[in-house]
Amino acid sequence: MTNPAQRRSTSLAIISTGFVVLWLMVAAGPFLWTLWGSFKVQGDFFSKADWTNALYGVRTMVETGDFFTTNGYYGAWVEHGFGESVINTTIVVVSTVIISLTLGTLGGYALARSGFKYSFWILMLALVFRAMPHITLVSGYLLPFFEWNIWGYLPTSIIVLVAINQPFTLWMLHSFFLNIPKDMDESAMVDGCTRFQAFWHVIIPVMWPGVITTGLFSFLLAYNDFAVTASLLSQDNQTMIPKIASFLGTTQVEGNVMFAVAAVVSAMIPLFILVMFFQRQIVSGLTAGAVKG
Amino acid sequence: MPHRTFFWFIIPSLAAMILFIALPVISVITQSLHVEHEKVLISSENCGPFGCKQVTIVDVAATTQLRADQPLGQFSGFDNYTNRNHLAFDEVGLAWEGSENIGIFIKKLLNLPFYKALAFTLTYTFVVTPFVIVLGLAIALGVNALPKFAKGPTIFVSLLPMIVTPLIGSLILFWMIDGEGIIGASIQYLFNDPGLSLKASPALTWMMLIVYGIWHSAPFSFIVFYAGLQTVPADTLEAATIDGANRWQRIRYVVVPYMKPLVVFIMLMQLMDNFRVLEPIVSFASEASATSLSWIIYKDLTSDTQLFGSAAATSMLTIIGVAILLLPVLFRTWRDFSRTAH
Amino acid sequence: MGTIKTIALTATAAAILTSSAAFAACGIAGNANVSIMGNDFPALHAVFSAAEQCAGDGVTVTKNHNKDYKDLMVPALTANPAEYTALTVSNGTLVTLMNDDLVRPLDDLVAKHGSGLNKSQLVTVNGKVMAVAFMANAQHLFYRSDILEQVGMSADELQTYEQVLTAAKRIRDAGLMEYPVALNTKAGWNLGEEFVNMYLGTGADMFVPGTAKVSINNAHGVATLNMLKSLVSYSHPDYLTFDSNATQALWEGDKLALATMWGSRTAGVLDAEGSTEQVVMNTDFAAAPSFNGGTIPASSLWWDGFIISKNVSDADAEASFIAMMNGISTEMVQANNDAATWLIEGYKPSKAASGVTATAMNGAAPYPMYPFMGALHGAAGSELSDFLQGSESAGQALADMEAAYNVAAKEKGFL
């Protein structure tokens, strides 16, 4: 924003920037550590002997003869076919986001514009639904899904993820729609648009920041979900997070923790690209000016 | 908006929620009012790789008959809610009568699993939520003031704590805070106490979980506020500046009111999510010092003996707890809503 | 081992090598659907992959390794037809399935196709074969011979936990290690397992015979708790977070001299990864010690085996049994000798298996197969930490355990 009225004194800028830098260090620290450690062996990165081993790669040197190793990546991608679960995750995530946002914008818009008491109660009900712990819901799905023979397939998980995420999506989009003045769609309707045309041609273009932010959360929910995908997908359809969890081993048997670490780092790359791409939408999209109405 | 239009807009969303949440909730309520049908026990000789042993087993034929007669199990009323592993009415009553002072009573209360979990759950919720809101707003304002080229990478990095799966994120953090890990060792060095361990004492475990919670959730409120900031009308800010408002006043009197629906939204979501805290307790192996209601459900559903009725009862108690927590917020929303309603 | 079996196995091996019609070698007649689920670790990967070789004309074999298989197994096998025709289980999970009548008795299939099995591999309940065991596991003592030597003790002096405590004290007093001892004492399942192990060392019953009434709040229970508390006083203060991954890392990080850990972790400790030569060279294994004047090792023996679902067609059940028999063949064992302590013909025990073998030889009890054992195990896991941390008496901890057990057992219909 280049409005001259918003120029600030340098000292405020320094404090504000300093705060952001501090936050960035706290936010990024563990991941830089992980990124670094993913090129070490388990004996270094998860060392009980001395944490500086992870910096100097003492065991990595002994076990692989090199300062860095890509064994973790090789194990996850080549030996254990991490690529397949990346494809499954892509399918699940893209479908969940698209369906969630479609249902959510329609519903959220209606709730924000209705004004009748029942819309308030629907919102309340959605909130109560959201309070239900996911694991309770998932354990209830198992038997019917097995009986109807729909357990283990991607579409089943997608629908469940959409439904579980719907209360949140509704609430969030409803909040954003409330921020948009009613005059906008009402004047469009005076000009002869139907309600849906007004929604589609007038409101949605202004709503991009809200839709993208909500989409980001739907995305993260589907991307990071463990409770649903771990119990509802068969091994062939496994998504990334259950796959990563399967690298961790069990009580009795040692896992390949470094595969998990390498897989987590690999899983960050698409996220990086996506966020970089969409933040531009948030920032340079139809922002401040458009809401003037 | 006419009822008809409203109906067509909301129906897809509502259908999904009814099918996959409302119906399961009804079955959870039913389940919470039942215990399993009686098991008929008989004695049997079991043999295996390590020899034979006389043990008690379930008489499958007789039990199958009982199960067929009572597919839902035995109706038990509110037993699942009031037994020792939940609200523990009898035990609390006994503890109240048998305690000389309130301190002993509280100690006895916290020995009961539900109250132990509730104590941590509430502390966590009420500490983490305000911190997340304030920290998130502060970061959003800070990032919004950055030059354009820096915004993209900053947003990405700011989201990191939330977007890395908690499963692995907290596993790595758990090793970092170990006495032999980078953070743990640094803290020992800082406090000059080589025996200091964040995992050993309940107080430190609570602190660790709360700090993790703030760190993990701050990006959520940051990104919501940040998106909200993009919709603050520039002319209102301009007018405030012309009226002589300084930066702080502009934030306090223009930006914050504009963010109010978002504050309400974040508070609702955060109260709810924090009340259901689970992953850090599992990943940080903190069940000896800190448990939560969701963790009790998790334990009931994943232990060797799955306790569905118990899990259902705790789930319902969680929902009731969330409802109570949200009442003030809901009341406000209701007032605002009524004011603007037709 | 029958000759017919041997011939069949040789044929299988040949078929695998040429990767041709393996179905003929497995001898599955007609069309069948085999689907197997089990836990997710290398030994089971080996078994499942060998079973998968039976796929061929008209026979499909699908597998699913899932760490949380025990949360899925009951609904998966309750559906009719069941999602999985075969399942690998351990003695802890078999009872859960039997409680719900989901396991098919195997007597006829064993008679027809199981000639290669050792008698001891058959798990029978009330005279009927319910599962076929193929590998064993137990927690036993790991010790560092170099450190013991430095404090003037030998492995023979580690027969009892009292002696382990003496050794620990000497190691601490000599300034070698402040916290030389570790057990898998993470609150929850691990801690519950330690309680069960220690209590089994007393030789006493955990339940009133013939009923689901628990009887642990007694002198045996108190002795068990006190021994656990004495042991953890030589453990790092973080002990309530110690799972197998943590204890193994501690061991490999040269931080422990005496530990009770799973037999399945021995191979990981002995390999070249994660540890210095000093540690690996001096790591040795012994039977789990006894305690309190008893002679029974304070540990429980575990087996892993497979079951066949009840709710599947006879043809699928037979095909699954044949496929699983192929999965646990001698060839599989020879190719994966060190992946587990196998109970299968042809296994050559190595140093890694010595602790489990010694524990079994000394007469340790199998993990109890009571239908309500899980409830007690869970109660022990969550109610003991207060006592170990010193904020509660042994009597109170046992009373809490009993109360927690009673609620769970009542909900399951046992009381």
Please give a structural write-up.
The complex is a heterotrimer of chains A (about 290), B (about 350) and C (about 425). Chain A is mainly alpha-helical and about 290 residues long. Chain A is about 75% helix and about 0% strand. Chain A has helices at about 10-35, 40-45, 50-55, 60-65, 70-80, 80-115, 115-130, 135-145, 155-180, 180-190, 195-225, 225-230, 240-245, 255-285. The longest helix of chain A has about 35 residues, at about 80-115. Residues about 1-5 and about 285-293 of chain A have low confidence and may be disordered. Chain B has about 350 residues and is mainly alpha-helical. Chain B has 2 domains: about 80-110, no CATH class; about 115-340, MetI-like fold. Chain B has a two-stranded antiparallel ribbon with strand order 1-4. A two-stranded antiparallel sheet of chain B has the order 2-3. By secondary structure, chain C is an alpha/beta fold. Chain C folds into 2 domains: about 5-135 and about 300-355, D-Maltodextrin-Binding Protein, domain 2, CATH 3.40.190; about 140-300 and about 355-410, Periplasmic binding protein-like II (D-Maltodextrin-Binding Protein, domain 2, 3-Layer(aba) Sandwich). In chain C, a hairpin with a 2-residue loop joins strand 4 (about 120-125) and strand 5. The chains are: A mainly alpha (about 290), B mainly alpha (about 350), C alpha/beta (about 425). At the A-B interface, helix 1, helix 6, helix 7, helix 8 and helix 9 of A face helix 1, helix 6, helix 7, helix 8 and helix 9 of B. Strand 2 of chain B pairs antiparallel with strand 4 (about 120-125) of chain C.
